[in-house]
């Protein structure tokens, strides 16, 4: 029978379980997708741990998990014209994608998968991809900029840092030491996060000036940017909110749509940008996958596969 990852109570990843579900059928304007791969996102872990976070997204228990997917069109409903059975697709379907089959709207967040993209990369792309495009665009980077990108080896950070390099900016990225050589290979100047961040960034500037910040980690990054003279209107955060944002912009993935995601997927398909896959787990090992996510220092994305 078809399966999905479900949690029935809040608090721990140990509550996650694989349950049997009915095979879905498409209604008018809908398509059924046979999911091949689905990336983990931080919001999934926050949702099963915290009922208040889950409620902000309209999630109540029992609930499935998963935001992003890639797979094949299994069946189409009446009136569907953009997709045909057997085509490879990717996109997002909040709190539904850790499953064998999902139903999505033809006019929703679903796109044709470029042939060169693996299902693992495509299935991990939508949330972090939209966020990286939107956050980078929010501060209008040019070749005159030097930008600090925090969590630069993570899913959003590694894409945002590469997009900043493409815009011509000099990029300084925070990451754990084991990811420094990787970032250096992408043209990103690596620095360690933690206490003394502003001093390390200042040393990396080598007499230059920091002009922008893309924060994917939290208040520490914003404080470092302000200490180094970056105006708050040239700081964007997706990790600090309310008073902790210190007046910075809070543009997120909602500011980018299918067109922007398709553009980024094209860059990945042409090897002009990379989304590294940290690790791949079969759906039956979902608890191990989340243990890896919550351990931190993830390079890129963690992915569940159904076969």
What labels describe this entry?
10 helices; 29% helix; single chain; 7-stranded mixed beta sheet; alpha/beta
Based on helices, strands and strand pairing, what is the structural class?
Answer: alpha/beta
| Secondary structure: helix percent | 25-40%
What is the terminal separation in angstroms?
Answer: 13 Å
What's the helix count? 10
Number of strands: 15
SSE string, helices as H and strands as E: EEEHHEEEEEHHEHEHEHEHEHEHE
The description of the largest β-sheet is: 7 strands, mixed
Percent of residues in β-strands: 15-25%
Average pLDDT works out at 97
Topology:
Elements: E1 3-7, E2 16-20, E3 30-39, H1 42-49, H2 51-56, E4 63-64, E5 68-76, E6 88-92, E7 101-105, E8 110-112, H3 119-123, H4 126-138, E9 146-149, H5 155-166, E10 170-174, H6 180-185, E11 189-191, H7 197-205, E12 212-215, H8 219-227, E13 235-237, H9 258-269, E14 277-282, H10 286-295, E15 301-305
Parallel strand pairs: 9-10, 9-12, 10-11, 12-13, 14-15
Antiparallel strand pairs: 1-2, 1-4, 3-5, 3-7, 3-15, 5-6, 6-8
Helix pairs in contact: 4-5, 4-9, 7-8
